[in-house]
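U., I forgot to send this yesterday:
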Amino acid sequence: LHPGAESIIPGRAELVLQFRDPDAHVLDAIDAVVRELAAEMTEAGPVDVAVIETRERIAPTVMDAGLRRHIADAAEHHVPSYWQEMPSAAGHDPMVIAHHLPCAMLFIPSIGGISHDFAEDTSDEDIILGCQVLADAAASILLEQ
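Result:
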């Protein structure tokens, strides 16, 4: 909000949206809905709503199904039914590497779901469990070779 003071009616507000999905068609559909809503809000008034792309679009990168299966099997072994497959379109290294080598990512939970913040933390138990899942997945991959 601008000027951002509690007792002043703002003259301008900004909202940053970031949406992710492994399917580019879904991303296009979300983009179309956001633009349609902005146009409808502007038409209804009394404020103008504009959609401004602040960075170029990045195509989703799908992680390797085989590696994901090894990680899923190891997770199911250690924490049956207490894990989830979670596609990520975050700007991690695999977005670049996956075009040259098979890639997958393993996420472990952050306390309170806080991520990408100085308050982010993970329990020692979850770190150890994540390492066990990773080690078992790696062993499974090597045995398959």
